[in-house]
Amino acid sequence: MEQVIKFELGRLNAHLPVKRISLKSALSASRPAVQGKNGNLHYFKREELKLLSKLLPESEWDKLQLPILIALESKLGRGAARISGEIEAKVIGKILQREATDNEIIVYRPELALIRRKLPTTTQYMFVW
Amino acid sequence: MAAAFTSSPNRMELMKVRKRLALAEKGHDLLKDKMDALVMELFNTLKTIQKSRATAIEQLRKGYEAVSACMAVMGTFETMQAAEETKKEIQIEISERNIMGIEVPTVEIEETERNALTRGYSLHTTSSHLDTAAREMERAVKLLVELAELEVTALTLARELERTKRRVNALEYILIPRLQGAMNFIMMRLDEMERENFTRLKRIKAILEGRE
Known about the structure:
The complex is a heterodimer. Chain A is of the alpha+beta class. Chain A has 5 helices and 8 strands. Chain A has one domain (about 1-130). Helices cover about 35% and strands about 25% of the residues of chain A. Chain B has a single domain (about 10-205), classed as Helix Hairpins, CATH 1.10.287. Chain B is built from 4 helices and 2 strands.
């Protein structure tokens, strides 16, 4: 059972990208995607990229790193998550229609559901322990 | 308790059990977080499926109505022949996306609605009802492809949720209680050994004092 736990813990963040790409380069790519640690490719939907580009001025397109990481931290409590990064927090704040503080934004379950509904491919979960 | 702990109860074993318990509790917390996120994703997908399915069914109804009207005006054979002549290719881009390590398909479909000139059938010999039927069916195809993506996603998420739930339950109801039981057993046994030692020493002291 311990091996199973270790395997599951190792697998939790295996989907995270090796290197994130900016919105600008995603918009210019023919098939925008990032490679995960497990080697799999994760593709972004163009309609989501267009939505993000509408939310940000063009000068900030190269500062937004994709996918936006939603950190699920046990210490925040069940259902709460943290989104870090100045531009990332700003864009999520615009979707939720509230302000981000200190370059990060804490989101709760209903908001998380809304974000994932609007940005299913350009956001990814990250488990923090 | 005995099933989880069979070796001799000593401090080394206590440390090992404590370490195993900490790992099990950490795994339990994280898998529970994953399960919560999966439930949320599944419900999100199901909500979208509900809307998407209703739209697709409505569009198909319109499509079949238009085909029936077309068959009534043009005749069944002529309609079938025109359908045979129609180009049957649509461009679909199927890729993958990751939801917490679960691979689900992402389908991007180009506009399926074509104009009458590019469909491939003769405009001279067909009725405008055929154009309407083709247009409605082309719209339906797009909705059906989008629905298929959502249904596969829901199915994959449901399977992963079931797997994760089994793991969480195994940790919560079997492994963690067993390890806690084992830890309590070792601690009680060590306390008991300490008390035995203490009594033994007191007895020895009393015997030595008696001899003097």
